[in-house]
TrEMBL record:
<keyword id="KW-0378">Hydrolase</keyword>
<dbReference type="InterPro" id="IPR017853">
    <property type="entry name" value="GH"/>
</dbReference>
<protein>
    <recommendedName>
        <fullName>Glycoside hydrolase family 5 domain-containing protein</fullName>
    </recommendedName>
</protein>
<keyword id="KW-0326">Glycosidase</keyword>
<comment type="similarity">
    <text>Belongs to the glycosyl hydrolase 5 (cellulase A) family.</text>
</comment>
<dbReference type="Pfam" id="PF00150">
    <property type="entry name" value="Cellulase"/>
</dbReference>
<dbReference type="InterPro" id="IPR001547">
    <property type="entry name" value="Glyco_hydro_5"/>
</dbReference>
<dbReference type="GO" id="GO:0004553">
    <property type="term" value="F:hydrolase activity, hydrolyzing O-glycosyl compounds"/>
</dbReference>
<feature type="domain" description="Glycoside hydrolase family 5">
    <location>
        <begin position="74"/>
        <end position="369"/>
    </location>
</feature>
<dbReference type="GO" id="GO:0000272">
    <property type="term" value="P:polysaccharide catabolic process"/>
</dbReference>
Length: 414
């Protein structure tokens, strides 16, 4: 089967011996003009890509006009109850950043909440036990230090407004499915964005603002794409939010998530987002096996993905834009999580085949070796979907890491 061949290729490319390894590939791919090594070159510490990033059709380009394929990891925790990225109790932030770079990825998605920005509490020593130089600091100062560590390794950062209050994500009962709540109004959402964009105005590693995560029904209100109702029209809201961001920093990319839990961009083909600054728009989607029950093979999965968002990548699509699949995951507790003849392993391989064939920008959920404290997480417990082990020192699964590394080098371009 195709997915089994894909898996075997991954194993052939890495004899990692338990250590972080450089990704396969690098440099120009297939001789395509404009297709560079940004997604597949480990690079040297401290070497950010040529900035600012720009958009050309469905491609993200660096400041030299070379394709910059987002190959990302999610490092969550700042949106949770402790207000800091998880793992700072286990490893120094600079060591974590170095391990991310050695995986071969080029970018980190950092979730945050409006509550974090508005309250900015002093962080408890327990959650930064391996970073005691940050003792007594406020949450945003810790986030500053994490971003500085990532920048020092040449990694770019996407700031993701994951939720309004801490810890509430991602179902239809948590009240955070819209870009506002009864407490955190749209005005406060915009104010938080203005504050955090201003804070990182002089930090070149921050390259994008993801306006909101996983749009879905909340408190009986369902977001839609268009229609003009300010309470439900996500398309109009992202134009307000995106323009507020760009007014402060016109060099940022603006990331707009799909509807229905970040799975549906069908309306964007005929009603695209229009921002005040051109060539800044990136769409984002998620995927999970539960999105399309019973659809697991590459052939079966292609249809729903093309229908829901893949059509926006077509060369003849007048409103095409980059699509970044910035949340997908599988478990690392068994080899069958990554590759199998059925179930989750088959779905995961099928998704990787689609992402590879269409050369889609991507971001794995999550980097975390351990969970962050919250309604759906226990502080310090293993994250069984995470890329790192519970010490935040090595891969939790070499099989999983190698499969993701195969997606890093670009194989298409402008």
């Amino acid at each position: 089967m195709k997915q089994l061949v894909f898996f075997a290729l991954g194993l052939a490319l890495c004899a990692c011996g338990g250590q972080m390894e450089d990704p396969p590939g690098g440099g120009a791919i297939g001789g395509n003009p404009g297709v560079g090594g940004s997604g597949g070159d480990v690079g040297r510490p401290g070497e950010l890509p040529a900035l600012p990033l720009r958009i050309l059709g469905r491609w993200i380009l660096d400041g030299d006009g070379t394709r910059f394929k987002l190959a990302s990891v999610n490092w969550y925790g700042a949106e949770k109850r402790d207000h800091v990225p998880a793992g700072l109790e286990r490893a120094h932030r600079s060591d974590i950043a170095r391990r991310i770079r050695r995986m071969g990825v080029n970018s980190v998605r950092l979730p945050w909440s409006n509550e974090l920005v508005e309250t900015d509490p002093v962080v408890g020593d327990e959650v930064i036990a391996a970073n005691l130089d940050l003792g007594g600091r406020r949450a945003l100062e810790v986030l500053d230090a994490v971003i500085e560590a990532l920048a020092a390794e040449g990694l770019v950062v996407i700031l993701d407004n994951h939720s309004s209050d801490t810890d509430a994500c991602c179902d239809e009962t948590d009240g955070n499915g819209l870009w506002y709540t009864s407490t955190y109004t749209e005005e406060r959402w915009l104010a938080s964005w203005r504050a955090i964009v201003t804070r990182y105005l002089d930090q070149p590693a921050v390259v994008a603002a993801e306006l909101r995560n996983a749009l879905r029904p909340a408190n009986g209100v369902t977001p839609v794409w268009g229609g003009g109702d300010p309470a439900t029209d996500w398309h109009a809201a992202v134009q307000r939010g995106g323009n507020a961001v760009l007014e402060i920093n016109p060099d940022l990319l603006v990331v707009v998530q799909a509807l229905d839990g970040a799975s549906d961009l069908r309306a964007a083909g005929t009603l695209p987002v229009q921002l005040a600054v051109e060539n800044r728009l990136v769409y984002a989607v998620h995927d999970d096996q539960r999105f399309y029950p019973g659809v697991n093979t590459p052939e079966d999965l292609t249809g729903p993905l093309e229908d829901h968002w893949g059509h926006l990548l077509a060369y003849d699509q007048p409103n095409k834009a980059p699509i970044w699949m910035n949340e997908f995951s599988t478990c690392h507790t068994s080899v069958t999580c990554v590759n199998d003849e059925s179930g989750r392993g088959l779905w995961f391989q099928s998704l990787l085949v689609y992402l590879s064939q269409n050369d889609v920008d991507w971001g794995y959920w999550a980097l975390n070796g351990t969970q962050a404290r919250g309604m759906e997480g226990t502080f310090g417990e293993e994250d069984t979907n995470g890329l790192l082990d519970t010490f935040w020192r090595a891969p939790a699964s070499l099989d999983l890491l190698v499969q993701l590394q195969l997606l890093i080098p670009p194989n298409q371009g402008p």
